[in-house]
Amino acid sequence: MESKNARLGLQLFFVYLLLYGGFVMINAFAPEMMERTPVAGINLAILYGFGLIVAALLLALLYGMICKGEDETATSSNNASISDNASSTKEDA
After folding, report:
1. β partners of residue 42
2. CA–CA separation, 40 vs 24, rounded Å?
3. Residues 6+ apart with CB under 8 A from 4
4. Which DSSP category does 35 fall into?
5. Could you report the per-residue pLDDT of 41-51, keeping only the tens digit for each?
6. Can you list the alpha helix ranges (DSSP code H) found in the chain?
7. Alpha-carbon distance 80 to 69, whole Å?
8. Which of 1, 7, 23, 39 shows its CA 20 to 30 Å from the CA of 76?
């Protein structure tokens, strides 16, 4: 299960890396584009930067929810097998 969580973490990391790479590429090759003000007089650089922060938080929450759901499923199945073993031991005695 840990390798599955690590794989998911890497996949989400690469999603964020693509978003951040887009930010860097725009700044490197089209800096005038970042000066545009698409919303309420706020330039694209500020909007994109805040978007990166929000994306990082959302990806972290997504990772936490998926891993927690898998952990609870594994824990409940382990607890069920432990209780089954305990009840069969009592019946054997």
Report:
1. 39
2. 23
3. 70
4. T
5. 999 999 999 99
6. 2-29, 31-34, 44-92
7. 17
8. 7
Residue 65 has which token pair? 């929810």
**Closest Cα partner for 5 from 76, 70, 85, 58?**
70
18-77 pLDDT per residue, tens = 999 999 999 999 999 999 998 899 999 999 999 999 999 999 999 999 998 776 666 666
- Position of tokens 């382990």? 78
Nearest to 26 by CA among 16, 41, 36: 36
| Nearest Cα to Cα of residue 51 among 67, 63, 39 | 39
List Cβ neighbours of 27 (8 Å cut-off, separation of 6 or more). Answer: 34, 45
SS3 content of the chain, % helix, strand, coil (to 5): 85, 0, 10
On whether the CB atoms of residues 23 and 49 are closer than 8 A, the answer is yes
Domain ranges (residues) in the chain? 2-79
